[in-house]
Automatic annotation (TrEMBL):
InterPro entries: Aminotrans_V_dom, Aminotrans_V_PyrdxlP_BS, PyrdxlP-dep_Trfase, PyrdxlP-dep_Trfase_major, PyrdxlP-dep_Trfase_small, SP_NH2Trfase/AEP_transaminase. SUPFAM superfamilies: PLP-dependent transferases (SSF53383). Residues 41-342 form the Aminotransferase class V domain. Keywords: Aminotransferase, Pyridoxal phosphate, Transferase. The modification N6-(pyridoxal phosphate)lysine is found at residue 205. GO terms for molecular function: alanine-glyoxylate transaminase activity; L-serine-pyruvate transaminase activity. It comes from Acanthopleuribacter pedis. The lineage of its organism: Bacteria, Pseudomonadati, Acidobacteriota, Holophagae, Acanthopleuribacterales. Belongs to the class-V pyridoxal-phosphate-dependent aminotransferase family. One of its GO terms (biological process) is glycine biosynthetic process, by transamination of glyoxylate. This is Alanine--glyoxylate aminotransferase family protein. The keyword Transmembrane does not apply. Its cofactor is pyridoxal 5'-phosphate. It holds the Pfam family Aminotran_5. PROSITE patterns: AA_TRANSFER_CLASS_5.
Length: 397
């Protein structure tokens, strides 16, 4: 047998399993996005590509509901977006207040600490929201550069209201940073109306695009903070003062853009905006309510109260005596459904069930509820067979 043929046998044709992605991300990719990504690659300074860059920026402004000129996708996942926003405005010694009610608020604090900031971390238990007065108390009396808040906490499913916090931050001339990784494209994000200065997201959640890009947006206040820096931005790759030359008017080379990923993002944004923001938000809300009704009718409970619960990321409390990993393994192996386990303080205590973007469909809710019921019955859990599907059907009617 020829040597190269033997080598190929060791690496057969790639054939990943087809899954229904109902975890905290990535979500199911829309077929139109996959098709767009297969288009021929062109240069990152090609006039046709430059035209597409303009389109992407305009589409992102619509989705973020902002007029911020500095709105563009960073090459990297949502965590790169987080780091991009923070590294460009934070300098050593800056006082930074971080509100942590989940894993990703903790990640914000970690990045700020690595940048040499004076980090003040305020915390509430995972699954709870912050009251504005907690932020007011943290910023009172001391010059504060930035207040960081997670709008949609992926580890818990909490949606944090931002307008009141923005007002408090601006009273002390601080910037407001918002993590919108799981909210953008699933629930309203209104940067200008709410007064958010820096925001970042990711493509792999409600945009139903593969992971690899992080949309960010900088307000004029944030741009001014960047211009007023006394020290150089410590990251070359994420230095917005240089990225501006590529995503701004000059289109000067900085790094090679991920061409085909940007094809996919453009198509993903078009899909959302063609459906219409109000319709997209209503769809996520409706299917989230179907899932919650079904879960609760089985006798299970949700971690997050309804008034600040994300419809696209649902944290289900694991019943006593139920094997967390065994349930998730059975869902994956027997039904090809992926959900997520708990992170941090919630490890082993909750399941994270995503209904994001293209995955937010009625058939996914019904299939998941039927599969979960079957698995829980096999584990001997005290649930009411059939009740979950009946309750979901009633909401979905």
């Amino acid at each position: 047998m020829p040597e190269n043929q033997s080598f190929r046998q060791d690496y057969p044709q790639l054939d990943p399993p087809v899954r229904t992605l109902m975890g905290p991300g990535p979500s199911d990719i829309h077929p139109r996005v996959l098709q767009a990504m297969a288009a021929p690659t062109i240069g990152h300074l090609d006039p046709a590509f430059i035209q597409m860059m303009d389109q992407i920026q305009g589409l992102l402004q619509q989705l973020f509901q902002t007029k911020n000129a500095l709105t563009f996708p960073v090459s990297g996942t949502g965590s790169a977006g987080m780091e991009c926003c923070m590294v460009n405005v934070i300098e050593p010694g800056d006082r930074v207040v971080i509100a942590q009610n989940g894993v990703f608020g903790g990640r914000m604090a970690d990045i700020a600490d690595r940048l040499g900031a004076d980090v003040v971390k305020i915390q509430v238990p995972f699954g709870q929201k912050f009251e504005p007065e907690a932020i007011r108390e943290a910023v009172a009396g001391k010059p504060t550069k930035l207040v960081g808040v997670v709008h949609a906490e992926t580890s818990t499913g909490v949606c944090q209201s931002l307008p009141e916090i923005a007002e408090i931050a601006h009273e002390v001339d601080a910037l407001l940073l918002a993590d919108c990784v799981t909210s953008l494209g699933g629930t309203p994000v209104k940067l200008d109306e709410w007064g958010v200065d820096l925001a970042y997201s990711g493509t792999q959640k409600c945009l139903s695009c593969p992971p690899g890009l992080a949309p960010v947006s900088f307000s004029e206040r944030a741009v001014q903070a960047l211009k007023n820096r006394k020290s150089k931005v410590v990251s070359w790759y994420l230095d917005v003062s240089m990225l501006l030359n590529y995503w701004g008017g000059e289109r000067a080379y900085h790094h090679t853009a991920p061409i085909n990923m940007l094809y996919g993002l453009r198509e993903a944004l078009l899909i959302v905006l063609e459906e219409g923001l109000d319709a997209v938000f209503a769809r996520h809300q409706h299917h989230g309510e179907m899932l919650v009704a079904g879960v609760e009718a089985m006798g299970l409970s949700m971690l997050v109260p309804a008034d600040y619960r994300l419809p696209q990321l649902n944290t289900v409390v694991i019943p006593d005596g139920v094997d967390d990993a065994a349930v998730r393994r059975a869902l994956l192996n027997d039904y090809n459904i992926e959900i997520g386990g708990g992170l941090g303080d919630l490890k082993g205590k909750v399941w994270r069930v995503g209904l994001m973007g293209h995955a937010s469909r009625r058939e996914n809710v019904v299939t998941f509820l039927a599969a979960l019921e079957s698995i829980l019955v096999q584990q001997g859990a005290a649930i009411q067979p059939g009740a979950g599907l009946a309750a979901a059907a009633k909401v979905g009617a």
